[in-house]
Each structure stands twice: as structure tokens, then as C-alpha cells.
Amino acid sequence: MERSPASFTRSARLTRPVEYRRVFAEAGRSTSRALTVLTAPNGLSYPRLGLAISKKAASRAVVRNRIKRIVRESFRHRQGELGGWDIVVMAKASAATATRQALRAELEEHWNRLKRRPCVPSSR
User: Fold this and answer.
1) pTM over 0.70
2) Do residues 67 and 95 lie in contact, with contact meaning Cβ atoms separated by under 8 Å?
């Protein structure tokens, strides 16, 4: 399937609970001040993103949605470089007060770490 680098289609998302459970079970973990990124090889040629932004991390829906928008936008721009990973981004409480620039910088660091890891397909 040919992908536009600027798109974020349904196939680029984790949509089913079983997909999230697999990432949580097989996860490689990358943490920073405001975010935790869990990754697992997906056996595909493209990455898929899932978001887990809890009320504990950001009690107001407006704040949770802002964090999600920032993560989706960063992923959308970098997905062509990331390879075959399933990625779940979780927010910590400090994400609620972090600036857009701080969250973007943390995400860039996570994406760079992920690019350096070899992707070994899982036997889903």
C-alpha cells in the first residue's frame, strides 16, 4: 500500500484492544519527563500508533486532547522513517503542563531512539 507521508490513515492506528495488549506485553520502553513510549515490532512495513492518555495524567479532556493532537501530528510527520513498529504513547502527569515545544522535542527524541533500534518482526 502506497502511503502519503502526510497522512494518518486508519491503517496507521492501533484500533483493537488485542493490539494494545500485545504492545504492552512485548514492549520495549522509552521514557522521558512527560511521555512513555512502548514499542513492539508489528511485522508490517509501516508503523502504527496508539494513544493511552489517562485521566490520571491529565484530568481535563481539553488537555488530554491537546496532548493527543501533538503526538498524532509528530507521528504523522515522522511515520515514513519509523519502520514496522506498533507504538503506544502514554502521558505522565507532567505532560499536562508541558508546552507544545517541550512535548515535540521529547517525541523527536523518542522517534530518533526508535529509528536506531533494529525491527525484528514478531510472530503475531
Assistant:
1) yes
2) yes
